[in-house]
Amino acid sequence: MMAPAARPAFTVKTRPGDNLMIHKALGLAAPGDVIVVDAGGDLTNALIGELMLAQMVRRGLGGIVINGAIRDSAAIAAQPFPVFAAGVTHRGPYKDGPGEINVPVAIDGMVIEPGDLILGDDDGLLCVPFGSVEAIHAAAMAKQAAEHKQMANIEAGTHDAAWVDAALRRLGCEGVE
What we know:
Blueprint (H helix, E strand, L loop, with lengths): L4 E10 L5 H9 L5 E5 L7 E3 L1 H10 L3 E8 L2 H5 L5 E6 L10 E3 L3 E3 L2 E3 L4 E5 L2 E5 L4 H24 L5 H9 L7
Parallel strand pairs: 1-2, 2-4, 3-4, 4-5
Antiparallel strand pairs: 1-6, 1-9, 7-8, 9-10
């Protein structure tokens, strides 16, 4: 199980297969930052491996998100450090640049600005824009409270699933009762 990530984004945009700017970001990111790398989703060359991960852990970074590949996957999986990547390959990276640091990036349509909140766990990853963090937190806490109540009802045998039949009737489904 991966350690969850809930930290600010430190963004990097790089050419597919090239990790020069990621190396630079390792020295610039603050402890707790999640480095978010837009490398175009290319899986041909790995952008990080075990050695770079050790540097991130040593610097106290909060995790890394890569729209690209990693290598040394067994060593990375053995660490509690949060790593999200599009894939795995044995091929190493280029170190030619160019790239950009702390600019808006996009991963599969999700736009991430420097400083946005990155949330991730074994189920996936999302970005909360910095200006929406408080509202999203309040909505998430309300949802969690409702799910705790529903779980308690399931465990007590008092769960009411009448909404399912009501929804099916509203949709005009016949013969499902």
